[in-house]
Amino acid sequence: MNNFKILAINSGSSSLKFKLYDMPAGNICVGGIVERIGSSEAQFSINDKTKTVPIENHENAVKCLLEELLEQNFINQLNEIVGVGHRVAHGGEFFKKSTVVKEKELEKIEQLGELAPLHNPVNAMGIKVFSEILPQSIQVAVFDTAFHQTIPSYNYLYPLPYSLYQKYKIRKYGFHGTSHQYVSQKAAKVMDLNFKESSFITCHLGNGASICCIKNGKSLDTSMGFTPTDGLMMGTRCGSIDPMILPFLQKNLYLSVDEVEHIINNESGLLGISGISNDFRDVQISAEKGNPLSKISIKMFVKRISEYILSYASELKRIDGIIFTAGIGEHSAYVRREICKQLACIGVRLNSRKNRKNEKIISSENSEVKVLVIPTDEELVIAKDTYKLVHNLVKV
């Protein structure tokens, strides 16, 4: 097998997260993030060292990143990077797996921006910039929705007129697929299980949050839907609500569609209820100081997660493990404890000491269901998928 460098990219509206891998071994050469793109005081972090630099746009961010890789000898020349894998939020029904991106594919990713307006446009922008600056590298899109393509129609269809699905493809797509796939595969290894015969409930809990029901190694159901706004209460997103609230707001507050969309995506969730922050850590501190709305927002957050887990437990019949991952899932022993209290009815029991220490398996010996904390690594999934697609196309 050929050995070469793969760059895994996660583009945000004002950020660019990256990891450079030596593939196929999967060894990380370097990783970091460029934040506050568009500012004269952008933050460029690489290998835990941060410097403040002016970065006008994503093109400047990419140039700055590549210059740093050359300067610090992580690469000797740009053509060592033979593939760039990009996280793309929404693949619709058009993209069922990771794919090499050319003009036609890029156009489709941009069109799907209507379904993921906070994500697809900046994902597409990242692909464009790298295509221009690294024309010799193969660009690959790795879709958050791909893992969920195995969800059966009775779970992905909405109870709307079927003609709306036929004409507009209105259905559940699901997101965070690379994360759900990675942590469930990792958990199967930890538990010495055959992944293709395993059943997990994975909880990706961060500023964006979703839960996935995995049976025999395949996504059976997930909480996010047509867009990433559906499902759980999140940092700024409302999650599932009575749909008639939206026309009510439009009629009574004379709001436009864009204004309502802004409320449900940017002003709701933990931020909307607590009035403090979209960051769970800030809300928890506020709750500990006695802020009643912060306390309520945490109870709502925990309740909705628990309800999804219990509904998926009934769908699976047998659960090999419940997995917590992402920022809150990996680091908040408090959230895990509060959720698992609600799961006592299905035999979940935590080991308090292991939970506080964020150990891999945090359930007690007498727990009927294993509970695990598995750090996610979406970038590694991106790098692996990219390598699979490009290693036969590149002559080294």
From TrEMBL:
Location in the cell: Cytoplasm
Active site: D144
Cofactors (names): Mg(2+); Mn(2+)
Binding, ATP: K17, H204, L205, G206, N207, G208, D279, F280, R281, G327, I328, G329, E330, H331
Cofactor note: Mg(2+). Can also accept Mn(2+).
Molecular function GO labels: acetate kinase activity; ATP binding; magnesium ion binding
Site entry (Transition state stabilizer), positions: H176, R237
CDD domains, per the entry: ASKHA_NBD_AcK_PK
Substrates-to-products reaction catalysed: acetate + ATP = acetyl phosphate + ADP
Family, similarity comment: Belongs to the acetokinase family.
Summary of the function given for this chain in its UniProt record: Catalyzes the formation of acetyl phosphate from acetate and ATP. Can also catalyze the reverse reaction.
Protein name from the UniProt record: Acetate kinase
Species of provenance: Liquorilactobacillus nagelii
Taxonomic lineage of the native organism: Bacteria, Bacillati, Bacillota, Bacilli, Lactobacillales
Gene name of this polypeptide: ackA
